[in-house]
Amino acid sequence: KPNMLHISTKEDEMLNKHKILFACDDSKFFLECKKLLREHNIQFNHIECLMPNIVNNILEQKPRFVVLDNSSPNIDVLEIVQKVNASSIEEKPKFIILTEFSNRTIEEKFRENDVFYSITKPIATTVFCYLIIQFMSQDFLDFESSMNKKSEKVDIESMVTNIIHQIGVPAHIKGYHYLRKAILLSIENEEYLHAITKQLYPE
Predict the structure, then answer these.
(1) What is the pTM of this model?
(2) CB pairs under 8 A, 24+ apart, for 190-195?
């Protein structure tokens, strides 16, 4: 059985030393993600959804990424982001926010607080894990700078096509072309990610 989330050995080596902290009340989602990510040597650690506990764990463990669930009643995700960003740790983590709904006000607050990425739930575990793998890849993190180097030009369209195929979207369905175009537009201009209904859909 082929691995839907296959990445190269080189990428595996790049991910070995990275880890993620995940604050979420959905234990089933966490365990499914942990199982998938473990195959790629990614440390995916759960932390209890309590404000002081989350902040302390982030400051002590110094993860590369932190995933916070905005639907958890026990935490204020923006307060956590603000406290960590105001702390003295040298390398601040990148925050990924899971949210059950999104609007312009929420998106603006995320941007103002330097949230790396927000994801609207529900989301399939395979898709979520593939995003995590891409985010943690050094090539992806250095994507903007590499685009400025002509000698290291990335074939974005091929990369997007491969990702869509790997998450199981068949090319013959009508929505395939819309999905592919939406991803390409969002790569060219990340503002689309914060205005999906008003800007990206019309495009």
Answers:
(1) 0.61
(2) 193/117, 193/118, 194/104, 194/107, 194/108, 194/110, 194/111, 195/104, 195/107
